[in-house]
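G., the chain you wanted modeled:
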Amino acid sequence: MSAAVQQAYLNACLAELEALKPGNVHIFADGHGMRVQDFIYSAEASAPALCDDQVFGTRTLGQRILHALQATHAKVGCNTNLGIILLAAPVVQACLQYPQLSLSAGLQQVLQQTTVDDAASVYEGIRLVSPAGMGQRDEHDVSQAPQITLLQAMQLASANDMVARQYADGYASIFTAAIPLYTDCYQRWQRPAWALTAVYLYWLASVPDSHIARKYGQARAVEVQQTASAHYQAFVALGNPKHYMPDLLKWDQALKQEKINPGTSADLTVITAMLSLLDESRA
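Predicted structure as tokens:
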């Protein structure tokens, strides 16, 4: 089982890189001082630490996250996949710990059982990769030893962070909106990369991107969201999405010139792809 889960994780990370994602790193354009190869190395380095129980024996959710972040940091030396690992780890844990349950039900079990130790491991991993724009809070800050479980920490952060919100609501919007969108676009276009571009635009259009909001403020994130909404509506209406490529590349260049990276929307695109692949393998 762990081999199948690891392959789904790897395939999702690589598939997301093939999707044209304005403002983010993809095969059509690097950006923000990072290259596509950095993300390939990151996926390959983190996959065994995240997914393979043969490496460390039975592990907690927090240990999976910390080991995967350590492996990535040792390989590329920068924060390429914090959000991806935070989102993927509960999925991995659910598949390995509750193979008899649906993905959604297994995730609920894993999230409800998180501990203070899980939070401590995650905080250690976040401090290691030092993501931009984290800031500080008066209580439950990642620089301090946690006094609450990982789920409780994510619930506190969920109003302002879409990765945390997935923990808080059991990945509900992924199951109810993003995966059906991916399936529909894939069936219409027969191109996984274009279907994932649609998913990325959906996330960027549906809520202000958390990474943009942390770095540039909520108002700027809302502006990007509104622009994304117009692009999303135009893109998904097309019979051939390739015709919209020039528009997306032009917007991609403009966002990167402003140093705006919708990183959270890209992370949510990866986990949508991973859950779609796992859904298919269980069908």
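The chain has one domain: 2-282.

Shout if anything looks off.
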